Amino acid sequence: MNSLYNLGLRQTASIQADIDKLIAGDSSAALQGQITASLAGLNRTVDDYDAIAKREMIKAKQEKAIMRVQKFRSDYTELKSQFDSAKRQAAEARSTQQRSELLGPPGTRQRFPQTPTAPAESPFRGSTPDPVYMSRENHALREHTFIQETETQLDAFLAQGQEVLNNLIDQRQMLKGTQRRLLSAANTLGLSRDVIGWIERRSTQDTYIFVVGAIITFISFYFIWKWFH
Questions:
Q1: Distance CA 114, CA 107 (A)
Q2: Alpha-carbon dihedral sign for residues 191, 193, 196, 197
Q3: Phi, psi of 84 (to 5 degrees)
Q4: Is pLDDT above 70 for 226?
Q5: Which of 86-90, 135-139, 177-181 has the highest mean predicted lDDT (pLDDT)?
Q6: Is the whole-model pTM more than 0.85?
Q7: Residue pair 38/11 in contact by the 8 Å Cβ criterion
Q8: pLDDT band of 77, cuts 50, 70, 90
């Protein structure tokens, strides 16, 4: 149970550090995917710790573990809220930057060729936007957004795979510790069996000695009684 508690502390500190990086301006998709996977791993760790705490036999330890679970869940909720807020702000800033890059300042936008427009029928009539240009602009914006979302999903999948690998490594270490304790218990049990076997053999020998001594004593009493009579 202590190993899960320490793992939860490490995960909480790591997630907080990553969120601080996101707030500081590192809005990369890889970092956001890593935070998402880390939050999922922390949630699983808290659930496992909660399950073990409910099976604790000692009342004092169980109450302490339950308090730790409540603290972990509170920290998880707070971290999730911070991440959602920082992710939303980063998405808004990135969307503004992308729109600025696509549109550009007035007079310098030469991203797509424009077709000549017909003269205005009236000098008082305002100019209308080029539908070909607007179509290409919207298509480019949608394509750029789709590519960005695809990269974000791929980074999230990679981060989740890394988190799963880290969890498997931690579980492997826990299983190694459990194996060592089981081997130690088995050795102790083997020693106890040897001691019990030695005691049983000694008890059998003592029984034989008692029987032989009793027979010799009765024979001695018989000859003594015979001698005096």
A1: 13
A2: negative
A3: -60, -40
A4: yes
A5: 86-90
A6: no
A7: yes
A8: very high
* Contacts (Cβ under 8 Å, ≥6 apart) of 216: none
Structure tokens at 77: 């909720």
> What six digits make up the tokens of 103?
């549109």
Q: Which amino acid is at 75?
A: D
Question: Which residue in this structure is represented by tokens 């690998």?
Answer: 165
DSSP the chain: -HHHHHHHHHHHHHHHHHHHHHHHT---HHHHHHHHHHHHHHHHHHHHHHHHHHT-SSHHHHHHHHHHHHHHHHHHHHHHHHHHHHHHHHHHHHHHHHHHHHH-STT---SS--PPPPPPSSTTSPPPPPHHHHHHHHHHHHHHHHHHHHHHHHHHHHHHHHHHHHHHHHHHHHHHHHHHHHHHHHHHHHHHHHHHHHHHHHHHHHHHHHHHHHHHHHHHHHHHHHHH-
CB of 156 closer than 8 Å to CB of 31: no
Tokens 């573990």 -> residue: 65
Which one has a higher pLDDT value, 165 or 129? 165
pLDDT for 162-181, tens place per residue? 777 777 777 777 777 777 77
What's the burial of 60, exposed, middle or buried (CB within 10 Å: 0-12/13-18/19+)?
exposed
